[in-house]
Design a protein that fits this description.
Helix content of chain A: 55-70%
Distance between the termini of chain A: 44 Å
Distance between the termini of chain B: 62 Å
Membrane topology (chain B): Multi-pass membrane protein
Strand order of the largest sheet of chain B: 1-2
Oligomer: heterodimer
Strand content of chain B: under 5%
GO molecular function (chain B): electron transfer activity; metal ion binding; oxidoreductase activity, acting on diphenols and related substances as donors, oxygen as acceptor
Helix content of chain B: over 70%
Keywords (chain B): Cell membrane, Electron transport, Heme, Iron, Membrane, Metal-binding, Oxidoreductase, Transmembrane, Transmembrane helix, Transport
Largest sheet of chain A: 2 strands, antiparallel
Number of domains of chain A: 2
Structural class of chain B: mainly alpha
Main location (chain B): membrane
Number of strands of chain A: 6
Protein name (chain B): Cytochrome d ubiquinol oxidase subunit II
Strand order of the largest sheet of chain A: 1-2
Chain lengths: 469, 336
């Protein structure tokens, strides 16, 4: 097997897997912080019980996000050493800043939050979760700055002596137009993920009319956040699509499986192509809509894959510059379709919750529980689309993926790595899912359980810990 | 001072902090089967590092990312060259991290026993392999003209590197034992002190010979001071532990780790990865470094934010300063 393929499989598997946990971490940390704030402001025990319940699920998820994140930080050096050498001057900085500004904040203040229930005053305690939440957003900001630079390299030059990328304008890297769209797109999608997770689990309990005082407010909050965030996903996604059309026209042509340049261009709803993605056999299109979506004009020109391939050959020399179209085309549709469905479901849920009480039909709750999976599908499809759509480049127009891999690492070593990681990740997924389901079904602690310990034994040194592993 | 030198010092500082902090929680993990004879005792042991182990581990992430930013060639050569040992470290850290969080989620003794194994091996493997890795960095590895590692796994498992691994492993066991004596009460505290006494002898033997060989083969005049200081700190820690002065003992083992890591980095400078195939192939602070512009930005970020991190992490240790004993472990109702 070609080391490039093995390294790409590892990157794909570990990154998609890691990103199952990341958006839930980002979304849930804010939601837990909101609930704890609500408890402190109103004094209602239901909010405290909700905080403890969602906090527990948050932690089961967070542990996986952290440990799978370590691999992300180091596989650049392990499998992609030529990439690391080439981009280190530009790409390393946001990664290091992410660690220093975000990871320290997240890990330290989460430790304080978990173990600090009886050690910190309420306000300081909730502040810890807010800091965790801010940390997750900062982390996303810097890692997306790094990824956006791969999508659309800016603020750099190629050093004549070494032939490597050299940073010339860090501000340009942070304000990369792709980043300014991808960052809000990812963050809002993370809030949708957290929201739908909370909504789905709440629906399960509400269907059984259990702990309604905890789950009805949770559900309302979750659906509200999901709906607002979904609108944010759509707006930022539209902006990202237009920016990509300008910066990476090949990716967007591959997203639409447009082979010949069209003006105006129709939006493809369904298409079947040849197995290698080389051309379209059959499809259904809505006239002119694609032109509007990608250029803002009903009559805009959308360039096709074949023309872009010819342009790329003229610019970069002979070669195949087309991404694998079936993957980009279907993942793009999956992302957009599932995203829209999520928005509709959250809106419908809010309408159903307008009045007091709860809707009767069990189907409503079944849909709610199943919808929990939707954002994870959309998130994964989105990343697979944008990363596969950038191929054959690792840094668009500058460095090819095939030239990025570690030259000194044997295919055998890489195979050991991808097999070991995949096997371990598989086992951990079973364990994590099992725990998540068990703790989600168990429901929140009772009112008695969350009340502070009786003041009879006030001797602090003998009191047992509020929380212990 | 050259910015490249500044960044060499910052990288050394990050790794030193990492080994000082995660050193004791690796030690705690390795001592779990020794000092935790039943489940409650094991929970006491684990909970001494419960709130802090994750923050400690971030020093490694940041040290690695800082190498990527400041010395991309060092990062690329090191992590692709030491591929399989690093993979083993990553796998160990994954199961270890999950183990802390998931161990208490079920009452099933088999479930807990499995995670206890994960904590033990997940602590031991990196504690050993970090020593192997850093000994090899100082010793030099075969690098070709493109700074690519051209050796094999067996090149990395040479006697000097294995002694380095043994040194970090034992040093961390000692550091962890002293930390446990400082953070627990009751019988565990007594037992931790006893274990620390034994580990101190082993640490002086392994660490002393490793530092002496390092000094004789790779040392500079000034590293006599740091290596000697590390040895003296170890003896001081052993003496303090023997007298039950737990705070002083911890300062002693911490100082020993700091000075031992300082010895390695000082011996290394100005190389970052010397090549055994000729000095021309070696990576140095000059030829491995990022540009002046990148280093300038990174310097500002590091100078402003590292002290802030140290302040709030220090505060965490203050918040959780109390000793833990078996009476503090809450009996939780397990989830059905």
């Amino acid at each position: 097997m070609d080391p490039v393929d093995i390294a790409r499989w590892q990157f794909g598997i570990t990154t998609v897997y890691h990103f199952l946990f990341v958006p839930l971490t980002i979304g849930l940390s804010a939601l837990v912080a909101i609930l704890e704030t609500a408890w402190i402001r109103t004094g209602k025990t239901a909010y405290l019980r909700a905080t403890k319940f969602w906090g527990k699920l948050f932690l089961i998820n967070f542990a996986m996000g952290i440990v799978t994140g370590i691999v992300q930080e180091f596989q650049f050096g392990m499998n992609w050493s030529d990439y690391s050498r080439f981009v280190g001057d530009v790409f390393g900085a946001p990664l290091a800043i992410e660690g220093l500004l975000a990871f320290f904040v997240e890990s330290t203040f989460l430790g304080l939050w978990i173990f600090g229930w009886d050690r910190l005053p309420k306000l300081l305690h909730v502040m810890c979760m807010w800091l965790v939440s801010i940390g997750t957003v900062l982390s996303a900001f810097f890692i997306l700055a790094a990824n956006s630079w791969m999508q659309n390299p800016v603020g750099y030059r190629i050093d004549e002596e070494t032939g490597r990328a050299v940073l010339t304008d860090f501000w340009a890297v942070l304000t990369n137009p792709v980043h300014l769209a991808a960052f809000p797109h990812t963050i809002t999608a993370a809030f949708v993920t957290g929201g739908m997770f909370m909504a789905g689990v709440s629906a399960w309990h509400l269907a059984r009319r259990k702990n309604v005082e905890v789950f009805r407010p949770s559900l309302k909050l979750a659906l509200g956040v999901t709906l607002v965030a979904s609108i944010g996903v759509a707006i930022s996604g539209d902006l990202l699509g237009k920016t990509m059309t300008e910066r990476q026209p090949m990716k967007m042509a591959a997203a639409e499986a447009i082979y010949e340049t069209e003006r105006p261009a129709g939006l493809s709803l369904f298409a079947v192509g040849t197995p290698d993605g080389g051309e379209e056999i059959f499809g259904i299109k809505v006239p002119a809509v694609l032109s509007f979506l990608s250029t803002g004009s009903w009559d805009g020109e959308v360039r096709g894959i074949n023309d872009l391939q010819a342009e790329a050959e003229a610019a970069y020399g002979p070669g195949d510059y087309r991404p694998f179209v079936p993957v980009t085309y279907w993942n793009f549709r999956l992302m957009v379709g599932v995203g829209l469905l999520t928005a509709l479901i959250s809106a419908a849920g809010l309408v159903l919750l307008r009045r007091r009480g709860l809707p009767a039909s069990p189907w409503i709750y079944r849909v709610g529980v199943l919808s929990l999976t939707l954002p994870f599908i959309a998130n994964s499809a989105g990343w697979i689309f944008t990363e596969m759509g950038r191929q054959p480049w690792s840094v668009y127009g500058v460095l090819k993926t095939s030239a990025s891999v570690s030259p000194g690492v044997s295919a055998g070593s890489m195979l050991i790595s991808v097999v070991a990681l995949t096997a371990l990740y598989g086992v951990l997924m079973v364990i994590e899912a099992g725990l998540m389901i068990r703790y989600a079904k168990a429901g929140p602690p009772s009112e008695d359980e969350v009340l502070p310990p009786d003041s009879a034994d006030d001797d602090d040194s003998e009191r047992s810990l509020a929380f212990a592993y | 001072m050259e910015l490249t030198t500044v960044w060499f010092i910052i990288i050394a500082f990050l790794w030193t902090s990492y080994f000082f902090l995660e050193g004791f929680d690796f030690g705690v993990g390795m001592l779990l089967p020794v000092l935790g004879r039943d489940d409650v005792e094991r929970r006491v042991v684990i909970n001494t590092i419960g709130p802090v182990w994750d923050g400690n581990e971030v020093w490694f992430i940041v040290a690695g990312a800082a190498m990527f930013a400041a010395f991309p060639e060092w990062y690329a050569t090191l992590f692709s060259g030491f591929y399989l040992p690093l993979l083993a470290i990553l796998l160990a850290l994954i199961i270890r991290g999950v183990a802390f969080e998931y161990r208490g989620k079920s009452d099933d003794p088999r479930w807990r026993a499995r995670w206890d194994k994960a904590i033990f091996w997940g602590s031991l493997v990196p504690a050993f392999l970090w020593g192997v890795a850093f000994a090899n960095i100082v010793r030099g590895v075969p690098l070709d003209a493109d700074h690519e590692f051209v050796g094999t796994l067996t090149d990395l498992l040479n006697p000097y590197a294995l002694l380095g691994g043994l040194t970090t492993m034992i040093l961390f066991v000692l550091h962890g034992a002293v930390f446990l004596a400082l953070k627990t009460s009751g019988d565990i505290r007594v037992q931790a002190r006893r274990v620390a006494g034994i580990a101190a002898v082993a640490a002086v033997a392994a660490g002393g010979s490793f530092l002496l060989i390092t000094q004789l083969q790779h040392g500079k005049p000034v590293t006599w001071l740091t290596a000697g200081g590390a040895a003296a700190a170890l003896l001081f820690a052993a003496a303090a532990n023997g007298r039950g002065r737990e705070g002083w003992a911890f300062i002693g083992t911490g100082t020993a780790i700091v000075l031992a890591v300082a010895t390695l980095f000082t011996a290394l400078f100005p190389d970052v990865m010397p090549s055994t195939l000729g000095a021309a192939n070696s990576l140095t602070t000059e030829n491995a470094a990022s540009t002046h512009y990148t280093l300038t930005i990174m310097t500002w970020v590091a100078v402003v934010f590292t002290p802030i991190v140290m302040i709030y992490q220090g505060w965490t240790y203050w918040v959780f300063r109390k000793r833990i004993g078996t009476s503090h472990i809450p009996v939780r109702e397990p989830v059905k």
